[in-house]
């Protein structure tokens, strides 16, 4: 499943290493991060951090409105994202800037459907009942 989303680029990304986790920074168009979902970790900011396992190491992605919307569109409430799902965010371009603001960043969200449990249908909804399960 691929979802296109956008985000406000207001300097929320920074790069440093510490506490056993790298914080990923999107700085160039075409840049992507792909890994296995570990958790959403609460922060002092509005949105949690997305924690992915990338090449055997935890990597933190600071979330924004657009990225959260993409995850919610794919999975429903973000609290229900199953551990182990393959996720890929790619920085695909910049949107139009409003006067006095930086342009928002556009992202594409990819989900490795082979890692999504059968009990969860992408799009945030439970799988439809089979014809023989309909009560009438």
Chain-wise SSE layout:
Blueprint: E1 2-7, E2 17-18, E3 21-23, E4 32-41, E5 49-54, E6 57-62, H1 65-75, E7 86-94, E8 105-112
Parallel strand pairs: 3-6
Antiparallel strand pairs: 1-8, 2-3, 4-5, 4-7, 5-6, 7-8
Jot down its keywords.
mainly beta; disordered C terminus; 37% strand; 136 residues; single chain; 8-stranded mixed β-sheet; disordered N terminus; 1 helix
Could you please describe the fold and organization of this structure?
This protein has 136 residues and is mainly beta. Helices cover 8% and strands 37% of the residues. It is built from 1 helix and 8 strands. The protein has an 8-stranded mixed sheet, covered by helices on one side. The two termini are 32 Å apart.
- Based on Cα principal axes, name the global outline: globular
Mean pLDDT rating: 75
Structural class: mainly beta
- Sequence of strands across the biggest β-sheet: 1-8-7-4-5-6-3-2
Q: Major sheet: size, sense and barrel closure?
A: 8 strands, mixed
Uncertain spans, ≥5 residues at pLDDT below 50? 1-20, 125-136
Q: SSE order in H/E notation?
A: EEEEEEHEE
Our count of helices gives 1
* Number of strand elements: 8
Q: Helical content, roughly?
A: under 10%
What percentage of amino acids are in beta strands? 35-45%
C-alpha Rg (nearest Å): 16 Å
Give the N-to-C terminal Cα separation: 32 Å
């Amino acid at each position: 499943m691929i979802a296109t989303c956008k985000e406000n680029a207001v300097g929320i990304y920074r790069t440093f290493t510490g506490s056993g986790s790298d914080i990923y920074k999107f700085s160039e168009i075409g840049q992507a991060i792909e890994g296995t979902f570990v958790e959403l970790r609460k922060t002092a900011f509005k949105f949690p951090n997305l924690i992915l396992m990338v090449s055997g190491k935890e990597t933190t992605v600071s979330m924004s409105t657009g990225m959260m919307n993409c995850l919610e569109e794919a999975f429903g409430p973000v609290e229900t994202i199953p551990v182990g799902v393959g996720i890929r965010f790619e920085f695909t371009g910049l949107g139009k800037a409003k006067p006095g603001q930086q342009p928002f960043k556009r992202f594409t969200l990819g989900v490795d459907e082979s890692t999504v449990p059968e009990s969860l249908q992408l799009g945030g909804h439970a799988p439809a009942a089979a014809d023989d399960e309909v009560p009438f």
